[in-house]
Amino acid sequence: MTEAPTIMWAGLSGKEYKYWIYPLGTSFKEEPGNYVFAKESRPNYWSPCYMGQAANLNRRLGDHEKEACAKRNGATHIHVHLTPGGETVRRTEERDLILKWKPPCNEN
User: Fold this and answer.
1) Residue 9 — φ and ψ, nearest 5°?
2) DSSP H/E element including 78
3) Where are the alpha helices (DSSP H) in 1-108?
4) Whether pLDDT at 2 is above 80
């Protein structure tokens, strides 16, 4: 199995976060992390539709209430990375990214 491609998402703070890119519908381990529902606006350029965090990626992404909104906005992939530092670390990263990118499905 080949390793998934990656992307660096920069937050408003200037900090960069490395995410792995997977097709929507991919299953994940029961681990904490941050994620982005995204669409490829042109080759290798991604736009976020929704950004979030979870204590358990498998449980959270299995039936996500914002997935329909993300798909309506063109999302075809999910970008994920593990964030083991606890909820405060995940929420800080989530807020940093949302403040910069303002994804449409985080607005409602």
Assistant:
1) -100, 125
2) strand 77-82
3) 57-62, 67-72, 87-101
4) no
